[in-house]
Amino acid sequence: MRVLSGIQPTGRFHWGNYFGAIRQYIDLQGDRGRAFYFIANLHALTTVRERATLARYTLDAALDLVALGLDPEKATLFVQSDVPEVSELCWLLMTGTPMGLLERCVAYKDKKAKGLAADAGLFTYPVLMAADILAYDSDIVPVGEDQIQHIEVCRDLAASFNHEFGETFVLPKAKILDRSARVPGTDGEKMSKSYNNTLAVFEEPAALRKQIMRIVTDSRPMEQPKDPESDHLFQLYSLFASDAQREEMAALYRRGGFGYGEVKKALAELAIDFFGPARARRKELEAQPRRVREILGDGAATARAKAREVLRRAQDACGVRLPEPC
Ligand code: ADP
Ligand code: TRP
């Protein structure tokens, strides 16, 4: 059973990325055979257009993932572009991709609706994603809800290739990441790089304390009881709190007579402790740059061996590889 997912290196990881995706990838890593996780730098190239930035984000993502517990002994971690077979497979799939299918995909449709210029990379983004998945005979693809449409496209493309050329690809299933793990940002909206409301996983403690103090809260008087469940500060606190701590804080909310500053201080201390071991591991890894390259190199070798096999199968099926002469 192959579990596979990709994550774009478009900036430093924030709490939303960790609780909403990365933690769940890590939980799945040893579960059912060897999971494949990759850093989707070719997809990121549709938005990050600066050479040094893309390279730095890619390495940062690798360091972050390993520091957070992605274990190269259990899962295969690699960089998307280190497996060129995927780009070739992408072309084979592209030849059978109806334009209308891609025109309905949201990333492209949204951009076009906003009157922004979209390029062919963004338009064909779902086909590359399908190649990412099919290249490794993936069975299960853990993704956020926003990616479900892309998994459907992948299944469509695989099924029509199989129909046209004979059984070639394994049809994958999406595993939707836990919806309840939606993390609010410092302004109460969904935490996202695009909203500039993030708290970074690897923020240094002093900077993190300051950012947490700036979390937007309402202006109800201290005495007034408050509903914990509808408060984003409480939701953030709950990410790190034990059940007992959560209950205690909820009781404080319902009773009233406290300031949000106290909650923020408690949140900062819990978050700093929670990510403390990962911060320490990351510093160790930073001190051995070769180690990370080695992990990515080994990962790419494992991933390539599988992708080569699947690409050959697809090439044979559609006739772009000449049969041996007799
Ligand atoms: P961003 O919105 O910051 O650009 P991405 O779209 O790169 O984040 O998300 C990468 C992964 O993290 C996706 O699987 C996504 O579902 C998850 N994720 C991002 N933000 C959140 C959030 N606020 N809560 C839960 N999961 C999130
Ligand atoms: N498009 C995904 C995202 O933005 C990243 C991604 C690229 C991916 N290729 C993939 C995820 C293949 C799962 C499988 O989150």
* DSSP summary: helix tally: 14
Portion in beta strands? 5-15%
Q: Quick check: average pLDDT?
A: 95
Helix residue percentage: 40-55%
N-to-C series of helices and strands = EHEHHEHHHHHEHEHHHHH
Total E-strand runs: 5
**Ranges with pLDDT <50 over ≥5 residues?**
none
Distance between the ends: 37 Å
* Largest sheet data: 3 strands, parallel
Q: Give me the side-by-side strand order of the main sheet.
A: 1-2-3
Bound compounds: adenosine-5'-diphosphate, tryptophan
Q: Could you tell me the radius of gyration in angstroms?
A: 22 Å
Shape: elongated
Structural class: mainly alpha
Structure description:
With 326 residues, this protein is mainly α. The protein contains 14 helices and five strands. The protein has helices at residues 15-28, 41-44, 51-67, 85-94, 99-103, 106-113, 120-123, 125-134, 148-165, 205-213, 232-240, 243-255, 260-286, 289-318; strands at 4-7, 36-39, 76-79, 140-143, 173-176. The strands form two sheets. Strands 1-2-3 form a three-stranded parallel β-sheet. The chain is elongated, with a radius of gyration of 22 Å. The protein starts with a strand and ends in an 8-residue tail after the last helix. The model has no long low-confidence stretch (mean pLDDT 95). It binds adenosine-5'-diphosphate (ADP) and tryptophan.
